[in-house]
Design brief:
Elements (H helix, E strand, L loop, with lengths): L8 H8 L3 H12 L2 H13 L11 H11 L3 E5 L5 H13 L3 E6 L38 E5 L2 H11 L5 E4 L5 H11 L8 E5 L8 H9 L5 E2 L5 E5 L2
Length: 233
């Protein structure tokens, strides 16, 4: 597991509506979270994982939370919890806020160790659960819900008064994504940010493009990744 290279200062600045220098300082702060990264890397080595499947921009997510200072962050998709850990660390630095994560874990194949191929990075190691790499010291701000997103997202829309940052990190088709985006839409106030991951080389999906248009926002792509987000005006 390697620390993210070349975090996108421009992307953070545009989503956070802040000066590039401010975005850079937040990213530099994330880079200094060496204890957190060491813990995550150690846990991944312990489980024989050389990489992780989450959004490949945890430093940008940290920077956004530090600048936006949201009371509630909603994250769809967890896996080992690298992104979750950086979000939680940023909330802890803010001294307020809760991360509400939704995951439907897929366990690693139950095969004898001697014949076991390298496990997919998205699978959950046997005996572990979603977010298995997240440090225990960060759990107090974490509302982790295990279940189908189609059931959990409506519950979050009922329970939360507002969502300052929404992260959609699961494979999706436009029909389902549109429904789920619209379910949470009333909870995103002016200044909130919504992000969707489209895979390493994916393009902007119609569902997120249309949502941004409805909110009079402009989709912004993270350089080198299929990661797009917009800020609600």
């Amino acid at each position: 597991m390697q620390l993210e290279k070349d975090p996108d200062q421009r992307w953070v600045a545009r989503l956070a509506a802040c000066a590039p220098g401010t975005a850079r300082r937040r990213l530099d702060e994330a880079l200094r979270e060496k204890r957190l990264f060491s813990h995550l890397a150690r846990e991944h080595r312990r489980e024989g994982r050389s990489s992780y499947i989450e959004i490949d921009a945890p430093l940008e997510l940290y920077a956004l939370v530090r600048h936006l200072r949201p009371r509630h962050v909603v994250e769809i998709g967890v896996s080992s919890g690298v992104s979750s850990a950086y979000l939680l660390q940023a909330l802890e630095r803010n001294g307020k806020g809760t991360l509400h994560s939704v995951d439907r874990p897929k366990p690693a194949p139950a095969t004898p160790r001697a014949r076991r191929p390298p496990a997919p990075s998205w699978s959950i190691p046997r005996g572990r659960g979603s977010g298995w790499a997240v440090p225990s010291m960060l759990l107090r701000r974490w509302d982790l819900r295990i279940g189908d997103k189609k059931d959990v997202i409506p519950l979050l829309a009922e329970e939360l008064d507002e969502v300052g940052l929404f992260i959609y990190d699961v494979p999706h088709d436009d029909t389902v994504a549109r429904e789920e985006f619209q379910t949470l839409d009333p909870r995103l106030p002016s200044g909130a940010v919504a992000i969707a991951d489209h895979g390493p080389s994916g393009g902007l999906c119609d569902a997120l493009r249309d949502w941004a248009k409805d909110r009079e926002g402009t989709p912004e792509g993270r350089t080198g990744l299929g990661l797009y987000g917009f800020r609600c005006p």
